[in-house]
Amino acid sequence: RILIIDFGSQVTQLIARRVRESGVYSEIHPFNSVTDQLLEEYAPKAIILSGGPASVTWEESPRAPAKVFEMGVPVLGICYGQQTMMEQLGGKVETSDHREFGRAYVEINKNCALFDGVWEVGTSEQVWMSHGDRVGKLAPGFEVVATSEGAPYAAVANEEKKFYAVQFHPEVVHTPHGAQLLKNFTHNVAGCSGDWTMAAFKEQALDAIRKQVGDGKVICGLSGGVDSSVVAVLLHEAIGEQLTCVFVDTGFMRAGESEQVVSMFRDNYNIQLVHRDASDDFLGAIGDSIDPEVKRKAIGKLFIDVFEEEAKKVGGADFLAQGTLYPDVIESVSFTGGPSVTIKSHHNVGGLPERMNMQLVEPLRELFKDEVRDLGRELGLPDSFVDRHPFPGPGLAIRIPGQPINREKLDILRKADSIYLEEIRNAGLYNTIWQAFAVLLPVKTVGVMGDARTHDYACALRAVTSTDGMTADYYHFDHDFLSRVANRIINECRGINRVTYDITSKPPGTIEWE
Ligand code: XMP
């Protein structure tokens, strides 16, 4: 396995992903938590030093522990990682007036194990650069293997020690052969076999769950989303009857979703499932509120209360299972007034474990979202669950903005939403789109249907592409598709007489309308 030492780059997680995609397990640890003891215990087959926002030329900028270079394992430095490696091994880093941000080209001057079968001497290759500083003098034992206009030492190597360092970012997709360079490093240089698969992970995870839980009882909140579905099925496979799932039905789910959850997990997987229909309570908790934050708080609080009530009824649970993912737990390095470590944590049912004296079981802590989907497939979950679009906890309650919510409006929205999603599926677009949904607008407009005047709701359709939900672009449907959906919604949804399409990207918009 590979250890990635994080110096705070925005794209450190991508290094871990690329390494795992090549079948090698990897973990990210922030530079200031990597002790000699951790290095010994983790016993990495190779180490990668990430990029980062600091400058090696600053007085107190971060360094890799000296032991990294003394363990006899291959080391790859990327961007800041290259610079600190050079500085620590006797080279020099300078602040350059030729900065490079974005696409750049490197000339390959020499063969190097990183380039085997990928780049040839004499060619010019596209890479992604993002640096102000650059190496000015090589550390002893290194030679230059690639250069760019702004970085005479774009790639350097000490083949004897198996130390490599690059100024560009091989982990981002804008370095087209970057993933292969990383694979050369982990497979050819470090000798990893590439046999880390989801099937192997599943077996490890089952073992770990059985060890942690023993013969204790586990409660798991199930929403029907990808993460909680995978947690539930994995735990069930590990501990069977010791697991009880609680599905708090807010009444804000999409059409048919509650029934699907119950039939999939109770009937199909034979999981003990408590289905609490709390739709009246949730509608009551929001009342006439239209402020999105007020609605969110009311829903969040009631969710915890109802969950706790059901968990108490199940009784005697020692553990609470949660679908926390790797991006939620990686300790991220931040540089606000000097190096510090902040941890973002997930609070699906915040505070409950302490209140009820339960321990957490978080079997997805080491996985990225797409790996969770792979694990779901490995566990036999159907695509309709595994590939499901993200859905916010407060559900349809934040898709009826600017107006009091009631059952009638929820039903109208549900119908419009299901027609829209059905058409998207029929057009084969569901998996290309990150998220698509309808929004019921707080405005009634005049229309004419048959010979009669109508005065009904307008609805907006939203569809976005995204890789992580942090930024998004609206999906460019063709107009025939939009016409077909609009026609069907107006004809089949009593209560809607006008349809619009939202062409806002994020930023400046958010994905949800709230
Ligand atoms: P925004 O609207 O902020 O949403 O652009 C980004 C992504 O997050 C989802 N979202 C939520 N997911 N609980 C969730 O689990 C929530 O409360 C929540 N609110 C927004 C949203 O659907 C989009 O995918």
Automatic annotation (TrEMBL):
Catalytic reaction(s) noted: XMP + L-glutamine + ATP + H2O = GMP + L-glutamate + AMP + diphosphate + 2 H(+)
MF term (GO), any: ATP binding
- Pathway where it operates: Purine metabolism; GMP biosynthesis; GMP from XMP (L-Gln route): step 1/1
Claim: Disulfide bond is one of the keywords in the record: no
| Alphabetical list of Gene3D superfamilies matching this protein | 3.30.300.10, 3.40.50.880, HUPs
Instruction: Give all residue intervals belonging to the GMPS ATP-PPase domain.
Output: 196-388
Signal sequence region: none
Q: What is its EC number?
A: 6.3.5.2
- What top-level class of enzyme does the UniProt entry assign? ligase
Recite the UniProt keywords alphabetically.
ATP-binding, Glutamine amidotransferase, GMP biosynthesis, Ligase, Nucleotide-binding, Purine biosynthesis
Q: What is this protein called?
A: GMP synthase [glutamine-hydrolyzing]
What is the protein's species of origin?
A: Aestuariispira insulae
Q: Which gene encodes it?
A: guaA
